[in-house]
Amino acid sequence: MNDGHAAVTELLGAWALHACSVEESATVEDHLAGCPACAAEADRLGRAVAGLATTVAVSPSARLRGAVLAAAVARRPAAGEEASSGYATWVDRFDTLLQSLTPAQWRERVIHDLTVQDLVAHLIATDELLAAQLGATDTEAPEDPAELDGGLPARRSAAAIGEHRGRPPERTRAAWRAQADRLLHDAGEPGSLDREVRLADPRLPRQPLRTALVQRLFETWIHTDDIRTVLGSPPDPPNERQVAMIVAFGVRLLPAALRLAGADRPPRSARLVLVGPAGGDWTISPAVQGAPARPPDATVTMEAVEFCYLLGNRRDPDSVPHRVEGDPAAAATLLRAATTLGCD
Amino acid sequence: MEQRPSSHPRWDREVCERLVAGDEAALGELYDELSPLVYGLAARVTRDWAAAEDITQEVFVRVWEDPQAFDPARGTWRSWLGTMTHRRAVDWVRRSAVRHRRTADAAPPIPAPDPEEAAVAGSVAKSVQAAVDDLPAAQREAIRLAYFDGQTYRQVAETLGIPEGTAKSRLWLGLRRLAARLQAEGIEA
């Protein structure tokens, strides 16, 4: 044992009680980082200190609660408010873009052989899958099991496209906008954001409305981007917070997407490292929660915003700029599953 | 046995995950569960109601801004918030001591623990209090000055008229004894 160790040992009690000088605290903390014995002792003393606090509990005045919660969400908006305001932003942007289009531009082919007008009709159909759930009364409409398959969005979309072809584009735009405004209005009702709803793909697990709104934000941005690309306008990606919400949506639903793709046997897992603004580090496993964690079979690294394009099926899993370490098959499975979380 | 939600280890993890997801209701739940601990401790150390409210707000806003700073594998919300609160309260005391030297006589009365809160903190608070009461008087007094009055060990030495080394060892031995007793009784604060 060296002198440093002895000096730290005799300071541990004072340190645990925040009764050292700043310099002494720094010395203790440096030592703890490299000394498991002292760290364990510090942990034990810390538990005793935590116990002391329980003996002086006093309820604050009732008005403090509201003030604290308001101050908190002023610093970091709650997820629900952020998702609905983010969606409202992209509704406005998409609408501004649509209103700037000439009749010829409305007929331009955008993607999958769809014209701009077809694409707006498609968006009406996928928005409607959510809007109809909010408009519904409290008594759940009985679900037709035959409807709850992965083909539902595509069938609804094809029907809406057929319906809108031949109509003046302005009517298609107005119908989309009116429904989006209704959706935002219904989402603003007290308690709505926590309500569990189906996503566009009804096979995915139900999610709170705030998560479903992120999917709406995401799809509205993707289609704005589709049209801007055809017009030759530069990309206008979501801001960092919006990218973070889309990433969180993707990370949350990827395990279910992997299971739907039948990629859970064997249950290979992958670590997803997203870099750049809104980046982060996640381990994605198709195993249901509670299953023993196992080390990831592969690590996939890419830009967070590229991951958003991948989720929208606007990047090819093979050619999206990314790096793989470990099992290439596990990585490829993850990337393919990601492309199914959009609304095509 | 008390059945507070915060007495279940899963609660700590779930609240953390919900905070990370931006679920405001989780912050409300954490506040309802632990604001008496945070506020009571801040009030006890600062002896200033307004400062205690400010510290309570700072602590919960900070948790909302950066919930991932809390690691459920390393401890409970109760101990994490207790540490954050104590640090801030002690900083407040040391800052205000620079402005005007406070004396024990001039200090406003210490808020008495609310009987209802005593029930809330329940068996944990009672057991901790009993364990503190059973400490040797010299250790108990040193811990009281350091923890509840926010004194440094040097100030504790000065207050008690003992060498600094003695103050350090009384704090250490007292805490060890307290930790051993709580561990033996299976009390997880």
The N- and C-terminal alpha carbons of chain B lie at a distance of: 14 Å
The CATH H-level superfamily of the largest domain in chain A is: dinb family like domain
Name given to the CATH architecture of the largest domain in chain A: Up-down Bundle
Query: End-to-end distance of chain A, in Å?
Result: 66 Å
The residue-averaged pLDDT of chain B reads: 86
Rounded mean pLDDT of chain A is 87
Tally of DSSP helical segments of chain B: 8
Number of domain modules of chain B: 2
CATH superfamily of the largest domain in chain B: RNA polymerase sigma factor, region 2, helix turn helix motif
**Largest chain-chain contact?**
A-B, 47 and 78 residues
* Structural class by sheet pairing and helices of chain A: alpha+beta
Overall number of structural domains of chain A = 3
Percent range for helical residues of chain A? 55-70%
Number of strands of chain A: 8
Principal-axes geometry of chain B comes out as globular
Largest sheet of chain B: none
How many separate helices of chain A?
13
